[in-house]
Amino acid sequence: MMATQPKPKPKPEPEPPEPGEDATTSPVIEEPPQTNASGNSLADRLDALFTSHVALIERVEKLEARVAAPPVGIGRRP
User: Fold this and answer.
1) Does pLDDT of 23 surpass 60?
2) Termini Cα distance of the chain
3) Which residues pair with 41 in a beta bridge?
C-alpha cells in the first residue's frame, strides 16, 4: 500500500484594506533625527567609525608585513 501525502491547506485570503486607508498615496520619508536611540550624535558616530577603520587598516598592514616576511626556519638543521 502506498502512502499518500496530505492535501496542502488553503492559504487564507489577505485582509481587505481599512476603509480609511488611501492606497494611492506614497509613504512619507522623514528626516532621521540627529541623534540615535542611544543618544550619540552623527558626528560622534562618524568619529567612532573613522577610528575603528584606522585601527583595522593598521592591523591589516601588520598582517601583510608578517606574511611578506621570510620564513623563520624553526626546526631546520644547518
Assistant:
1) no
2) 77
3) 35
